[in-house]
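Session log. Operator J.P. requested a structure for one protein chain; no other inputs attached. Running the standard single-chain path with C-alpha coordinate output.
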Amino acid sequence: MSVRPLFGSLCASLDDFLSQPLTIVADSGGAAVAILNANRPVFYVVSPEAWANSPHLRGEPARSGVRAESDSLSESSGRHSAGSFHVPSAHTHHAAPHAMPNATPRARSAMTESVMTQGAMRANSFDVLAEQLLAHEQQRVQRGELSAASVGILRNRLDAHVLPHFKYTPPSQVNPMMMDAFVKRLTDSRLTSTTVSQYLVVLRKLLKLAIRHGFLRELPELPSIKVASQPRSMLSLKEYAAVVRTAHRLHRWGGKAPEVKASTLQRDRFWVQPRHLSLPPDMAWAIRFMVNSFIRPGDLRQLKHKHVQVVRGNSVYLRMTLPETKRHDTPMVTLRPAVQVYEAARNKALQDGFGAPDDYVFLPAEKDRNYALAVLGFWFKWVMREAGVAPEDNSGRLRTLYCLRHTSIMFRLLYGEGIDMLTLARNARTSVQMIERFYASALDGEMNVAMLQSRRSPAKRR
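Structure written below.
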Protein backbone atom coordinates (compact mmCIF):
# COMPACT_ATOMS: atom_id res chain seq x y z
CA MET A 1 0.00 0.00 0.00
CA SER A 2 1.40 3.36 -1.00
CA VAL A 3 1.71 5.88 1.79
CA ARG A 4 1.74 9.65 1.43
CA PRO A 5 4.80 11.40 2.86
CA LEU A 6 4.36 12.58 6.43
CA PHE A 7 5.32 16.19 5.69
CA GLY A 8 3.15 17.08 2.74
CA SER A 9 2.76 20.38 0.98
CA LEU A 10 -0.75 21.19 2.28
CA CYS A 11 -1.09 24.10 4.68
CA ALA A 12 -3.73 26.02 6.64
CA SER A 13 -3.68 29.08 8.88
CA LEU A 14 -3.74 28.66 12.62
CA ASP A 15 -6.99 30.64 12.88
CA ASP A 16 -8.70 28.39 10.33
CA PHE A 17 -7.50 25.27 12.10
CA LEU A 18 -8.69 26.46 15.50
CA SER A 19 -12.13 27.28 14.11
CA GLN A 20 -12.65 24.05 12.09
CA PRO A 21 -10.02 21.41 12.95
CA LEU A 22 -12.04 18.35 11.86
CA THR A 23 -12.83 19.80 8.45
CA ILE A 24 -9.18 20.58 7.71
CA VAL A 25 -8.04 17.10 8.77
CA ALA A 26 -10.83 15.45 6.75
CA ASP A 27 -10.03 17.51 3.63
CA SER A 28 -6.34 16.64 3.76
CA GLY A 29 -6.94 13.23 2.16
CA GLY A 30 -4.47 11.56 4.51
CA ALA A 31 -1.66 14.03 3.87
CA ALA A 32 0.02 16.07 6.58
CA VAL A 33 -1.17 19.66 6.90
CA ALA A 34 1.26 22.39 7.93
CA ILE A 35 -0.40 24.82 10.34
CA LEU A 36 0.94 28.32 9.77
CA ASN A 37 1.06 31.30 12.09
CA ALA A 38 2.25 34.57 10.52
CA ASN A 39 3.14 32.52 7.40
CA ARG A 40 5.50 30.30 9.41
CA PRO A 41 4.80 26.62 10.17
CA VAL A 42 4.34 25.94 13.87
CA PHE A 43 3.22 22.29 13.77
CA TYR A 44 1.86 19.58 11.46
CA VAL A 45 -1.44 17.71 11.66
CA VAL A 46 -2.31 14.30 10.22
CA SER A 47 -5.37 12.10 10.41
CA PRO A 48 -5.46 9.04 12.72
CA GLU A 49 -5.23 6.72 9.71
CA ALA A 50 -2.22 8.52 8.23
CA TRP A 51 -0.51 8.48 11.59
CA ALA A 52 -1.10 4.74 12.03
CA ASN A 53 0.18 3.96 8.52
CA SER A 54 3.20 6.26 8.64
CA PRO A 55 6.42 4.43 7.71
CA HIS A 56 8.21 6.49 10.37
CA LEU A 57 6.20 4.74 13.05
CA ARG A 58 5.67 1.28 11.56
CA GLY A 59 5.00 -1.22 14.30
CA GLU A 60 4.24 1.47 16.88
CA PRO A 61 0.74 1.84 18.42
CA ALA A 62 -0.96 5.02 17.25
CA ARG A 63 -3.97 7.18 17.78
CA SER A 64 -5.10 10.59 16.62
CA GLY A 65 -2.39 12.80 15.19
CA VAL A 66 -3.79 15.81 16.99
CA ARG A 67 -3.57 16.35 20.69
CA ALA A 68 -4.92 19.39 22.53
CA GLU A 69 -3.28 20.63 25.67
CA SER A 70 -4.92 22.97 28.17
CA ASP A 71 -1.73 24.97 28.66
CA SER A 72 -0.82 27.81 26.30
CA LEU A 73 1.38 27.47 23.23
CA SER A 74 5.10 27.61 23.54
CA GLU A 75 7.02 30.61 22.27
CA SER A 76 7.52 29.04 18.85
CA SER A 77 3.81 28.49 18.37
CA GLY A 78 3.00 32.19 18.35
CA ARG A 79 0.71 34.21 20.56
CA HIS A 80 -2.49 33.83 18.57
CA SER A 81 -3.28 30.20 19.31
CA ALA A 82 -5.15 28.93 22.30
CA GLY A 83 -3.85 25.40 22.86
CA SER A 84 -0.74 23.39 22.09
CA PHE A 85 -1.15 21.06 19.07
CA HIS A 86 1.63 18.69 18.10
CA VAL A 87 2.33 15.32 16.58
CA PRO A 88 3.12 12.79 19.31
CA SER A 89 6.66 11.55 19.41
CA ALA A 90 7.61 7.92 19.07
CA HIS A 91 8.13 7.72 22.83
CA THR A 92 4.61 8.77 23.67
CA HIS A 93 2.30 6.07 25.06
CA HIS A 94 -0.73 5.70 22.75
CA ALA A 95 -4.05 3.97 22.84
CA ALA A 96 -4.69 1.05 20.53
CA PRO A 97 -5.22 1.89 16.83
CA HIS A 98 -8.87 0.91 17.04
CA ALA A 99 -9.62 3.38 19.85
CA MET A 100 -10.77 5.98 17.31
CA PRO A 101 -11.48 4.06 14.09
CA ASN A 102 -12.15 6.29 11.09
CA ALA A 103 -12.91 9.32 13.29
CA THR A 104 -16.28 8.13 14.62
CA PRO A 105 -18.85 10.71 15.77
CA ARG A 106 -17.84 10.07 19.37
CA ALA A 107 -14.20 10.64 18.53
CA ARG A 108 -15.02 13.74 16.53
CA SER A 109 -16.99 15.11 19.45
CA ALA A 110 -14.16 14.46 21.90
CA MET A 111 -11.67 15.98 19.50
CA THR A 112 -13.79 19.08 19.00
CA GLU A 113 -14.24 19.53 22.73
CA SER A 114 -10.51 19.17 23.36
CA VAL A 115 -9.62 21.70 20.68
CA MET A 116 -12.40 24.27 21.13
CA THR A 117 -13.28 24.25 24.82
CA GLN A 118 -10.11 23.63 26.82
CA GLY A 119 -7.76 26.27 28.13
CA ALA A 120 -7.64 29.74 26.65
CA MET A 121 -9.28 28.57 23.42
CA ARG A 122 -12.66 28.61 25.18
CA ALA A 123 -12.54 32.42 25.20
CA ASN A 124 -12.45 32.50 21.39
CA SER A 125 -16.21 32.95 21.45
CA PHE A 126 -18.35 36.06 21.49
CA ASP A 127 -20.54 34.50 24.19
CA VAL A 128 -17.59 34.19 26.56
CA LEU A 129 -16.21 37.63 25.68
CA ALA A 130 -19.66 39.14 26.25
CA GLU A 131 -19.82 37.74 29.78
CA GLN A 132 -16.35 39.09 30.49
CA LEU A 133 -17.34 42.51 29.15
CA LEU A 134 -20.45 42.60 31.34
CA ALA A 135 -18.34 41.66 34.36
CA HIS A 136 -15.88 44.47 33.60
CA GLU A 137 -18.69 47.00 33.18
CA GLN A 138 -20.28 45.84 36.44
CA GLN A 139 -16.99 46.56 38.19
CA ARG A 140 -17.12 50.09 36.77
CA VAL A 141 -20.59 50.44 38.28
CA GLN A 142 -19.21 49.41 41.67
CA ARG A 143 -16.48 52.05 41.35
CA GLY A 144 -19.05 54.70 40.50
CA GLU A 145 -17.73 55.20 36.95
CA LEU A 146 -20.90 53.96 35.26
CA SER A 147 -24.59 53.77 36.02
CA ALA A 148 -26.30 50.42 36.54
CA ALA A 149 -28.74 51.29 33.74
CA SER A 150 -25.83 51.41 31.27
CA VAL A 151 -25.02 47.75 31.98
CA GLY A 152 -28.65 46.86 31.31
CA ILE A 153 -28.53 48.69 27.97
CA LEU A 154 -25.30 46.88 27.11
CA ARG A 155 -26.85 43.49 27.86
CA ASN A 156 -29.90 44.33 25.75
CA ARG A 157 -27.72 45.25 22.77
CA LEU A 158 -25.67 42.09 23.10
CA ASP A 159 -28.79 39.93 23.17
CA ALA A 160 -30.64 41.82 20.43
CA HIS A 161 -28.08 41.87 17.62
CA VAL A 162 -24.42 41.33 18.53
CA LEU A 163 -24.54 37.73 19.82
CA PRO A 164 -27.18 36.49 17.34
CA HIS A 165 -25.14 37.83 14.42
CA PHE A 166 -21.74 36.50 15.59
CA LYS A 167 -23.03 33.29 17.18
CA TYR A 168 -21.08 30.98 14.87
CA THR A 169 -18.08 33.26 14.27
CA PRO A 170 -14.98 33.04 16.49
CA PRO A 171 -13.55 36.50 17.29
CA SER A 172 -10.28 35.38 15.71
CA GLN A 173 -12.06 35.15 12.33
CA VAL A 174 -13.69 38.59 12.30
CA ASN A 175 -12.78 40.72 9.29
CA PRO A 176 -13.98 44.03 7.76
CA MET A 177 -16.49 42.24 5.51
CA MET A 178 -18.19 40.80 8.58
CA MET A 179 -18.33 44.30 10.05
CA ASP A 180 -20.13 45.53 6.94
CA ALA A 181 -22.61 42.66 7.18
CA PHE A 182 -23.29 43.52 10.82
CA VAL A 183 -23.98 47.16 9.96
CA LYS A 184 -26.33 46.00 7.20
CA ARG A 185 -28.24 43.92 9.75
CA LEU A 186 -28.63 46.98 11.99
CA THR A 187 -29.64 49.17 9.06
CA ASP A 188 -32.22 46.63 7.89
CA SER A 189 -33.64 46.72 11.44
CA ARG A 190 -34.28 50.44 10.85
CA LEU A 191 -32.00 51.61 13.64
CA THR A 192 -30.83 55.20 13.58
CA SER A 193 -27.24 56.13 12.78
CA THR A 194 -26.73 57.03 16.45
CA THR A 195 -27.87 53.59 17.59
CA VAL A 196 -25.76 51.83 14.92
CA SER A 197 -22.74 53.79 16.13
CA GLN A 198 -23.45 52.71 19.72
CA TYR A 199 -23.63 49.06 18.62
CA LEU A 200 -20.21 49.42 16.98
CA VAL A 201 -18.85 50.73 20.28
CA VAL A 202 -20.04 47.50 21.93
CA LEU A 203 -18.44 45.41 19.19
CA ARG A 204 -15.19 47.36 19.48
CA LYS A 205 -15.04 46.57 23.20
CA LEU A 206 -15.50 42.86 22.50
CA LEU A 207 -12.77 42.85 19.85
CA LYS A 208 -10.38 44.64 22.22
CA LEU A 209 -10.94 41.79 24.67
CA ALA A 210 -10.15 39.37 21.82
CA ILE A 211 -6.84 41.21 21.29
CA ARG A 212 -6.02 40.91 24.98
CA HIS A 213 -6.60 37.13 24.74
CA GLY A 214 -4.32 36.96 21.70
CA PHE A 215 -6.97 35.99 19.14
CA LEU A 216 -6.43 39.14 17.11
CA ARG A 217 -3.37 41.28 16.52
CA GLU A 218 -5.29 44.46 15.81
CA LEU A 219 -8.83 45.72 15.43
CA PRO A 220 -10.32 45.03 12.00
CA GLU A 221 -11.39 48.12 10.12
CA LEU A 222 -14.82 49.21 11.34
CA PRO A 223 -17.35 50.88 9.06
CA SER A 224 -17.56 54.66 9.29
CA ILE A 225 -21.00 55.79 10.43
CA LYS A 226 -22.00 59.42 10.12
CA VAL A 227 -24.14 60.21 13.13
CA ALA A 228 -26.99 62.56 12.31
CA SER A 229 -28.51 64.52 15.18
CA GLN A 230 -32.25 63.89 15.40
CA PRO A 231 -33.93 66.32 17.81
CA ARG A 232 -36.98 65.01 19.60
CA SER A 233 -40.39 66.38 18.82
CA MET A 234 -42.08 69.01 20.96
CA LEU A 235 -45.52 70.48 21.56
CA SER A 236 -46.51 73.97 20.61
CA LEU A 237 -48.03 76.20 23.29
CA LYS A 238 -51.49 75.55 21.82
CA GLU A 239 -50.96 71.76 21.74
CA TYR A 240 -49.64 71.76 25.29
CA ALA A 241 -52.73 73.59 26.54
CA ALA A 242 -54.94 71.14 24.61
CA VAL A 243 -53.43 67.99 26.13
CA VAL A 244 -53.61 69.40 29.67
CA ARG A 245 -57.28 70.35 29.27
CA THR A 246 -58.07 66.98 27.72
CA ALA A 247 -56.32 65.09 30.53
CA HIS A 248 -58.39 66.93 33.13
CA ARG A 249 -61.57 66.31 31.12
CA LEU A 250 -60.92 62.57 30.72
CA HIS A 251 -60.33 62.32 34.47
CA ARG A 252 -63.61 64.07 35.31
CA TRP A 253 -65.49 62.13 32.61
CA GLY A 254 -64.29 58.78 33.97
CA GLY A 255 -64.38 57.01 30.60
CA LYS A 256 -62.16 54.09 29.69
CA ALA A 257 -59.37 53.91 27.15
CA PRO A 258 -60.18 51.88 24.02
CA GLU A 259 -58.62 48.44 24.02
CA VAL A 260 -57.71 48.72 20.34
CA LYS A 261 -54.91 50.38 18.45
CA ALA A 262 -55.81 53.60 16.69
CA SER A 263 -53.93 52.51 13.56
CA THR A 264 -55.19 48.94 13.08
CA LEU A 265 -58.34 48.98 15.24
CA GLN A 266 -57.22 45.72 16.82
CA ARG A 267 -54.85 44.52 19.55
CA ASP A 268 -53.76 40.92 20.01
CA ARG A 269 -52.78 41.43 23.65
CA PHE A 270 -53.76 44.26 25.95
CA TRP A 271 -51.11 44.72 28.63
CA VAL A 272 -52.62 47.61 30.67
CA GLN A 273 -54.36 46.39 33.80
CA PRO A 274 -58.12 47.14 33.99
CA ARG A 275 -57.72 49.63 36.82
CA HIS A 276 -55.55 51.78 34.56
CA LEU A 277 -58.04 52.04 31.70
CA SER A 278 -59.57 55.04 33.47
CA LEU A 279 -57.51 58.20 33.70
CA PRO A 280 -56.56 59.46 37.19
CA PRO A 281 -55.38 63.03 37.82
CA ASP A 282 -51.74 61.84 37.69
CA MET A 283 -51.62 62.22 33.89
CA ALA A 284 -52.44 65.93 33.84
CA TRP A 285 -50.10 66.47 36.77
CA ALA A 286 -47.26 64.59 35.05
CA ILE A 287 -47.66 66.61 31.84
CA ARG A 288 -47.61 69.95 33.66
CA PHE A 289 -44.81 68.85 35.99
CA MET A 290 -42.49 67.77 33.17
CA VAL A 291 -43.01 70.94 31.15
CA ASN A 292 -42.26 73.07 34.23
CA SER A 293 -39.35 71.09 35.64
CA PHE A 294 -37.11 69.95 32.69
CA ILE A 295 -37.16 66.43 34.14
CA ARG A 296 -36.61 63.27 32.08
CA PRO A 297 -39.27 60.52 32.04
CA GLY A 298 -36.81 58.14 33.70
CA ASP A 299 -36.33 60.59 36.57
CA LEU A 300 -40.07 61.17 36.82
CA ARG A 301 -40.50 57.42 37.28
CA GLN A 302 -38.12 57.36 40.28
CA LEU A 303 -39.13 60.70 41.82
CA LYS A 304 -39.91 60.35 45.54
CA HIS A 305 -41.10 62.91 48.05
CA LYS A 306 -37.72 62.84 49.79
CA HIS A 307 -36.20 64.20 46.56
CA VAL A 308 -38.44 67.30 46.55
CA GLN A 309 -38.25 70.46 48.70
CA VAL A 310 -40.61 73.43 48.36
CA VAL A 311 -38.72 76.74 48.49
CA ARG A 312 -40.64 79.96 49.17
CA GLY A 313 -38.73 83.23 49.08
CA ASN A 314 -38.24 85.89 46.46
CA SER A 315 -39.02 83.05 44.04
CA VAL A 316 -41.25 80.04 44.61
CA TYR A 317 -39.94 76.77 43.21
CA LEU A 318 -39.11 73.15 43.91
CA ARG A 319 -35.56 72.03 44.61
CA MET A 320 -35.13 68.45 43.41
CA THR A 321 -32.14 66.42 44.57
CA LEU A 322 -32.51 63.46 42.27
CA PRO A 323 -30.15 60.48 42.03
CA GLU A 324 -27.34 60.85 39.50
CA THR A 325 -28.46 60.80 35.86
CA LYS A 326 -26.01 60.56 32.96
CA ARG A 327 -23.17 61.68 35.27
CA HIS A 328 -25.13 64.71 36.46
CA ASP A 329 -25.95 64.95 40.15
CA THR A 330 -26.56 68.66 40.76
CA PRO A 331 -29.95 69.74 42.17
CA MET A 332 -32.63 70.92 39.74
CA VAL A 333 -35.04 73.80 40.29
CA THR A 334 -38.47 74.08 38.72
CA LEU A 335 -40.76 76.85 37.56
CA ARG A 336 -43.50 78.06 39.88
CA PRO A 337 -46.39 76.04 38.31
CA ALA A 338 -44.58 72.82 39.29
CA VAL A 339 -45.06 73.74 42.97
CA GLN A 340 -48.85 73.76 42.55
CA VAL A 341 -48.73 70.41 40.76
CA TYR A 342 -46.55 68.80 43.43
CA GLU A 343 -48.69 70.00 46.33
CA ALA A 344 -51.85 68.73 44.64
CA ALA A 345 -50.25 65.33 43.99
CA ARG A 346 -48.96 65.09 47.57
CA ASN A 347 -52.33 65.98 49.10
CA LYS A 348 -54.01 63.30 46.99
CA ALA A 349 -51.31 60.80 48.00
CA LEU A 350 -51.83 61.54 51.70
CA GLN A 351 -55.55 60.89 51.30
CA ASP A 352 -54.75 57.51 49.73
CA GLY A 353 -52.31 56.50 52.46
CA PHE A 354 -49.11 57.50 50.67
CA GLY A 355 -46.98 60.66 50.76
CA ALA A 356 -44.17 59.35 52.99
CA PRO A 357 -40.59 60.40 52.08
CA ASP A 358 -39.90 57.07 50.36
CA ASP A 359 -43.19 57.02 48.45
CA TYR A 360 -43.25 57.92 44.76
CA VAL A 361 -44.81 61.21 43.67
CA PHE A 362 -46.68 59.87 40.63
CA LEU A 363 -48.61 56.58 40.67
CA PRO A 364 -47.31 55.78 44.19
CA ALA A 365 -49.29 52.53 44.41
CA GLU A 366 -47.30 50.99 41.56
CA LYS A 367 -44.15 49.33 42.90
CA ASP A 368 -43.06 48.21 39.41
CA ARG A 369 -41.75 51.53 38.20
CA ASN A 370 -41.10 50.36 34.65
CA TYR A 371 -44.77 49.47 34.40
CA ALA A 372 -45.74 52.82 35.96
CA LEU A 373 -43.77 54.70 33.31
CA ALA A 374 -45.25 52.53 30.55
CA VAL A 375 -48.76 53.33 31.80
CA LEU A 376 -47.99 57.06 31.72
CA GLY A 377 -46.81 56.64 28.13
CA PHE A 378 -50.01 54.79 27.23
CA TRP A 379 -52.14 57.51 28.81
CA PHE A 380 -50.20 60.23 27.00
CA LYS A 381 -50.97 58.68 23.60
CA TRP A 382 -54.63 58.37 24.58
CA VAL A 383 -54.77 62.01 25.71
CA MET A 384 -53.10 63.27 22.52
CA ARG A 385 -55.55 61.32 20.40
CA GLU A 386 -58.53 62.73 22.30
CA ALA A 387 -57.05 66.25 22.14
CA GLY A 388 -56.60 66.07 18.38
CA VAL A 389 -52.81 66.36 18.64
CA ALA A 390 -50.97 64.39 15.96
CA PRO A 391 -48.83 61.51 17.28
CA GLU A 392 -46.02 62.75 15.00
CA ASP A 393 -44.73 66.24 14.31
CA ASN A 394 -44.27 67.76 10.85
CA SER A 395 -40.89 66.02 10.52
CA GLY A 396 -42.36 62.58 11.22
CA ARG A 397 -40.88 62.32 14.72
CA LEU A 398 -42.98 60.45 17.27
CA ARG A 399 -44.34 62.34 20.22
CA THR A 400 -43.73 60.43 23.42
CA LEU A 401 -43.40 61.44 27.07
CA TYR A 402 -39.83 62.51 26.32
CA CYS A 403 -41.13 65.28 24.04
CA LEU A 404 -42.38 67.03 27.20
CA ARG A 405 -38.78 67.57 28.33
CA HIS A 406 -37.98 68.95 24.89
CA THR A 407 -41.03 71.18 25.19
CA SER A 408 -39.87 72.40 28.59
CA ILE A 409 -36.44 73.47 27.32
CA MET A 410 -37.83 75.00 24.12
CA PHE A 411 -40.40 77.05 26.03
CA ARG A 412 -37.58 78.59 28.09
CA LEU A 413 -35.64 79.42 24.92
CA LEU A 414 -38.74 80.87 23.27
CA TYR A 415 -40.46 82.66 26.14
CA GLY A 416 -37.79 83.14 28.81
CA GLU A 417 -36.38 86.66 29.00
CA GLY A 418 -32.60 86.84 28.84
CA ILE A 419 -32.23 83.13 29.49
CA ASP A 420 -28.62 82.01 29.96
CA MET A 421 -27.88 78.85 27.98
CA LEU A 422 -25.31 77.53 30.46
CA THR A 423 -27.67 77.98 33.42
CA LEU A 424 -30.46 76.26 31.52
CA ALA A 425 -28.19 73.35 30.57
CA ARG A 426 -26.90 72.88 34.12
CA ASN A 427 -30.39 72.97 35.59
CA ALA A 428 -31.70 70.50 33.01
CA ARG A 429 -28.75 68.18 33.71
CA THR A 430 -27.36 68.34 30.23
CA SER A 431 -24.74 70.35 28.35
CA VAL A 432 -24.86 73.44 26.15
CA GLN A 433 -23.70 71.27 23.24
CA MET A 434 -26.59 68.85 23.75
CA ILE A 435 -29.09 71.71 23.86
CA GLU A 436 -27.67 73.10 20.62
CA ARG A 437 -27.71 69.69 18.90
CA PHE A 438 -30.99 68.21 20.11
CA TYR A 439 -33.12 71.06 21.41
CA ALA A 440 -32.18 74.46 20.02
CA SER A 441 -31.52 72.90 16.61
CA ALA A 442 -35.29 73.00 16.10
CA LEU A 443 -35.36 76.72 16.90
CA ASP A 444 -35.84 78.91 13.84
CA GLY A 445 -36.01 82.66 13.34
CA GLU A 446 -39.76 82.79 12.92
CA MET A 447 -40.29 81.35 16.41
CA ASN A 448 -38.75 84.50 17.88
CA VAL A 449 -39.52 86.96 15.12
CA ALA A 450 -40.56 89.64 17.62
CA MET A 451 -37.15 89.45 19.29
CA LEU A 452 -35.39 89.65 15.94
CA GLN A 453 -37.38 92.75 14.95
CA SER A 454 -37.15 94.48 18.32
CA ARG A 455 -35.35 97.84 18.68
CA ARG A 456 -33.67 99.31 21.70
CA SER A 457 -35.06 102.59 23.02
CA PRO A 458 -32.94 105.74 22.64
CA ALA A 459 -32.22 105.66 26.36
CA LYS A 460 -30.72 102.18 26.08
CA ARG A 461 -28.53 103.17 23.11
CA ARG A 462 -26.49 105.59 25.24
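Operator note: The chain has three domains: 10-119, 126-213, 237-453.
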